[in-house]
TrEMBL record:
Protein name: VWFA domain-containing protein
Entry-linked Pfam families: VWA_2
Domain of life: Eukaryota
Taxonomic placement: Eukaryota, Haptista, Haptophyta, Prymnesiophyceae, Phaeocystales
Domain named VWFA: residues: 54-148
Length: 149
């Protein structure tokens, strides 16, 4: 059985929130990635301009409940799936971008699909990007190489 484990902390140096998402399969813990959202105005760091391409796993396993591990080691689910957490993280990043930034979204399951071509992050572009991200649904199996290829 696979489960997600989400841990977060705020870096004292930068005051930027950092989220670690780990996956546990049959008792073996494997850290998948660390998500660090772009800088915010509150952090006192100038936001860098750029192009952000999200490559998101939409395989059926992403419908698994996302669980938080408490300080006591208990695993608690708040009703969100792993894909819900991924969508929220992407939308948080998109909302922090401005008209000089661009975003694209690629999903992968059995194969990879570009669901959002490069889009400028003006007000309309952000709304379109976030609606596209929100429309992602779990599909079939995982082909990681399709997402990376």
């Amino acid at each position: 059985m696979s489960k997600a484990c989400i841990r977060g902390h705020t870096s004292p140096a930068t005051k930027i929130f950092i989220m670690d998402l780990g996956f546990v399969k049959d008792g073996d813990s494997t850290l998948m990635f660390t998500l660090t959202p772009p800088q915010t105005k509150d952090a006192g760091i100038e936001v860098s301009k750029g192009c952000y391409c999200f490559v998101i796993d939409v395989s059926g396993s992403m419908n698994t409940p996302a669980e938080v591990t408490t300080d006591d080691g208990d695993r608690v689910s708040h009703g969100w799936s792993q894909l819900d957490i991924s969508k929220h993280a992407c939308n948080t990043i998109v909302s922090s971008l401005d008209e000089n930034d661009y975003v694209a979204v690629i999903t992968y399951s059995d194969s990879a699909k570009v669901i959002l071509e490069w889009s400028r992050c003006d007000a309309g572009g952000k709304l379109h990007a976030m609606a596209t991200i929100d429309s992602m649904r779990p599909e079939r199996s995982t082909n990681l190489m399709a997402g990376l290829g």
